[in-house]
């Protein structure tokens, strides 16, 4: 049997599939078959195999273009986040007091990162500020945060009040909570939004985790 001859007698669909896969140039060597094969179209009309292949390629090109646009959009978003993270990092490193740190959190996190709330929770500090809360006992929000890894979650109004006591809360929202490995007692950085979907569980926490790491160094220094 020559390479371009199909087996005689009975030929199953799978054998035909296997044969065509093994001979991808079959229709190139038999171009006349392409005009004889017809496929049903969604409109009810029959179209040739060539037309069908063109349609498939066009759909694949559109899908690839869509994916490429999504990658470009993600790259632009990451560039913007990197620039904002860099500015915040430099500002954090320049702080010389808790009061200055409180202002940096308010200016950069609330403005540049378009967050509605931000609060750093610590223990055994001398006083509390708007965005730096000191706790003598256990953190009041330990019931919904284990303090071990970054957590994005939807929160009720009462939970938002516990995390961001300096702000008023009328409805539910969302937040990302990040552990701070402080030298005396573990701390927590909380960034929140009035939008319950803003900090969803599938959110990438790479940049905010980096910010929490830098904040940890600054707090240990202060």
Can you walk me through this structure?
With 222 residues, this protein is an alpha+beta fold. It has 2 domains: 16-61, no CATH class; 95-221, 2-Layer Sandwich (Beta-Lactamase). Helix content is 46%, strand content 17%. It has 7 helices and 7 strands, in the order H-H-H-E-E-H-H-E-E-E-H-E-E-H. The chain has helices at residues 13-22, 26-29, 32-36, 49-94, 98-112, 157-163, 206-221, and strands spanning 38-40, 46-48, 117-123, 132-135, 151-155, 173-180, 187-193. The strands form 2 sheets. It has a 5-stranded mixed sheet. A two-stranded antiparallel sheet has the order 1-2. Strand 1 and strand 2 form a beta hairpin. Helix 4 (49-94) runs parallel beside helix 7. The protein is elongated, with a radius of gyration of 30 Å. The model has no long low-confidence stretch (mean pLDDT 81).
Counted up, domains total 2
Strand content bin: 15-25%
CA radius of gyration: 30 Å
Averaging pLDDT over every residue, what do you get? 81
Top-tier CATH class of the largest domain: Alpha Beta
- Report low-confidence residues grouped into runs of 5 or more: none
What is the makeup of the main sheet?
5 strands, mixed
Helix content: 40-55%
- CATH architectural label of the largest domain: 2-Layer Sandwich
CATH superfamily of the largest domain: GAF domain
Supply the number of helical segments.
7
In CATH, the topology of the largest domain is named Beta-Lactamase
Number of strands: 7
In brief:
With 222 residues, the chain is of the alpha+beta class.
